[in-house]
């Protein structure tokens, strides 16, 4: 998730999507999962992680 966040924060959102997807699918839980979901929720449809 840190790599996804770093990519997102530096304007490389498209690179962050697969990393976020992998993180969420791996079973991330608790506060870290909430943060990952919130981070992805703000993305335009073209960057969808689903």
Describe the protein in words.
By secondary structure, the chain is an all-alpha fold. The protein has helices at 2-9, 13-25, 30-41. Helix 1 (2-9) runs antiparallel to helix 2 and helix 2 runs antiparallel to helix 3. The protein is globular, with a radius of gyration of 10 Å. The model has no long low-confidence stretch (mean pLDDT 78).
Mean pLDDT: 78
How would you spell out the order of helices and strands?
HHH
Straight-line distance between termini:
16 Å
According to DSSP, the number of beta strands is 0
List keywords for this structure.
50 residues; mainly alpha; 3 helices; 66% helix; globular
Write the layout of secondary structure elements.
Elements: H1 2-9, H2 13-25, H3 30-41
Helix pairs in contact: 1-2, 2-3
Summarize the structure.
The chain contains 3 helices and no strands. It is mainly alpha-helical and 50 residues long.
